[in-house]
Amino acid sequence: MHATLRDANPPLTPSVEDYLKVIYHLSNQGGFAATSDIAAMLDVAPPSVSGMVKRLSETGLIEHVPYRGVQLTAQGRRAALRMIRRHRLLELYLTQQLGYDWGGVHAEAERLEHAVSDELIDRMARALGDPLYDPHGDPIPTAAGEIEEAELVSLADAGLGSKLELRQVGTQDSARLRFFAEQGLTPGVLLTVTDRQPFNGPTTIGLVPSGDPRVVGRELALLLWCREMPVTDRGYASR
Amino acid sequence: MHATLRDANPPLTPSVEDYLKVIYHLSNQGGFAATSDIAAMLDVAPPSVSGMVKRLSETGLIEHVPYRGVQLTAQGRRAALRMIRRHRLLELYLTQQLGYDWGGVHAEAERLEHAVSDELIDRMARALGDPLYDPHGDPIPTAAGEIEEAELVSLADAGLGSKLELRQVGTQDSARLRFFAEQGLTPGVLLTVTDRQPFNGPTTIGLVPSGDPRVVGRELALLLWCREMPVTDRGYASR
DNA sequence: TTCAAAGTTTAGCGTAGTCTAATGTTGATG
DNA sequence: CATCAACATTAGACTACGCTAAACTTTGAA
Questions:
Q1: Is A36 domain-assigned?
Q2: Could you check: is the Cβ of residue A9 within 7 Å of any atom of nucleic acid strand C?
Q3: Which residue among A41, A144, B5, B124 is buried most deeply as judged by most CB within 10 Å?
Q4: Which residue of A has its CA nearest to B112?
């Protein structure tokens, strides 16, 4: 029930915590997480999800409305946020303390998050100065299970002329992550929307303060989540 | 096949690698590892070991002589040493970089050693300056799978008057580890045997250079593995 | 209003590990 | 050298996950 013989390394089978994490992400905006979406995210067959859903709701971690989907209970949400805290702190620690690069940390954190103790996570957090955001710009839940609810707009939806701070890159795909990094589109960057083509066409933005233009197709723009920034007469407001 | 529902945290079931590690330790001095000893070390029932032994020998990691015991093949030895390298580097990293104390690292390393990648281990090793010994004084196998074969004597067997360097503490029991640490009996310490009582009585030693005496009962003295040191006319030879 | 497609659940089986109880083997002792 | 205790293995059941195929809902479009 732990590691198998043939494939000792990559845990092919998602753990309970992985289910909770994807349910958290899928039902984030208050809705239900659909069986098939969970299955797609975890790369298992839908009946496997039905089975796990049954077990998880028996133990009180989720609530299941048949044919509708699932939601986390308070307990399940706590467990999910605990794993998200672990994941994001691990990514930050690996990046800052061990020289990993932005695109390479995800897989490592994905495995480690199941093995680390709360004590280790707290020690890492302290070593990093109790940071609030991970290398992708996502907020790190506190040990008590609180998380900053960011009000983010996808770049594809942001208004023409609006001033934005890139906060999250909504993909784990390393080719895309590398592409964004090459374009200078990393969390924390400031930008303005200068143009958008109709019919789901690309968005053109300008980086701040350099003014360098970038053209981002809609598929990719949908992955770039931004905070809309108030503008003061002396420039952009700081956080 | 990964983490179960009821006991999400402590991996109650030993992994393949855990089997290889204990077989390595049990058959270290060239012998066979007995089924019941493996079972005792892993806290599983003997038939579970028989089952795993079958699978491990089918994949060529061990050789099994029925009713005699098992030995590692070259491949199995390599896999065991890889895990031992991970374990010892993790203990050292946690101790030196994250402020863990000597007694508390074992359980953490035991879980992490299954989740870390070779890359992470190599990065940790580099961050530590490619160390040769872990916090217990045990040699760390190289990435290529070589390990220093130490010629060690148990303190209980060392000759009266001999000069020794404490190299390994042969227990994982944290109460004993803490006791040794309090007595100043940590790997690297130099000492001389000043007295030994007959009938399995205690050994008296003097710490070097302070000369502080310590009295160690036979049960504990058996756990303290030392290197016998050549003496030069200017003092103890360095490593 | 029906009906078909899409999505979900159930049924039934496979695998990799655990366990207890029963059976085999070995080696020391009378 | 026969016996018996200790140790090892086999037999058979259980759990927790996975899968495919089949049955059941829901929904959206004709």
A1: yes
A2: no
A3: B124
A4: A115
A162 lies in the same domain as A209: yes
What is the per-residue pLDDT for B205?
92
Residue B197 at interface with chain A, using a CB cutoff of 8 Å: no
Task: Tell me the one-letter amino acid at B222.
Answer: L
Indicate yes or no: CB of A115 within 8 angstroms of CB of B114: yes
Residues 49-88 of chain B: which lie with beta carbon within 7 Å of strand D? 49-51, 53-54, 64, 66-67, 69
Together in a domain, B67 and B101: no
* CATH code of the domain containing B41: 1.10.10.10
Short-list B93, B79, B88, B65, CA closest to B136:
B88
First-to-last C-alpha distance (Å) of chain A:
46
Distance from CA(B56) to C1'(C17), angstroms, rounded: 13
The tens place of each residue's pLDDT in chain B, 239 residues long, gives 444 443 334 557 899 999 999 999 888 766 899 999 899 999 999 999 999 999 999 999 999 999 999 999 999 999 999 999 999 999 999 999 999 987 789 899 999 999 999 999 999 999 999 999 887 778 899 999 998 876 778 888 888 888 888 877 776 666 777 788 778 887 778 899 998 887 777 889 998 878 889 999 887 888 888 888 765 544 444 43
Task: Report the alpha-carbon distance of residue B167 to residue B180 in Å, rounded.
Answer: 13
Nearest to A112 by CA among B78, B108, B4: B108
Domain hosting residue B106, numbered range: 84-149
**pLDDT tens across A107-160, in order?**
999 999 999 999 999 999 999 999 998 877 788 999 999 988 767 788 888 888
ipTM of the shown complex? 0.75
Range list of H helices, chain A? 16-26, 35-42, 46-58, 74-98, 105-112, 118-127, 174-182, 218-221
The helix/strand/coil state of B72 is strand
Among A96, A116, A149, the domain boundary falls at A149
Q: How close does chain A come to B14, measured CA to CA in Å?
A: 7
Residues A112 and A171 occupy one common structural domain: no
Query: Are A115 and B120 an interchain contact pair (Cβ–Cβ within 8 Å)?
Result: no
Structural domain includes residue A217:
yes
Check whether residue A158 and residue A227 sit in a common domain. Answer: yes
Indicate yes or no: CB of A120 within 8 angstroms of CB of B94.
yes
A184 with A227, same domain?
yes
Query: Is position B39 within any domain?
Result: yes
Which burial class, exposed, middle or buried, applies to A132 when counting CB atoms under 10 A from its CB (0-12, 13-18, 19+)?
exposed
Residues across chain B: 239
In a domain, B161, yes or no: yes
Interchain contact A123–B (C-beta under 8 A): yes
For chain A, state the CA radius of gyration: 19
Strand C contact at CB of residue A51, distance < 7 A: yes
What is the pLDDT at residue B187? Answer: 72
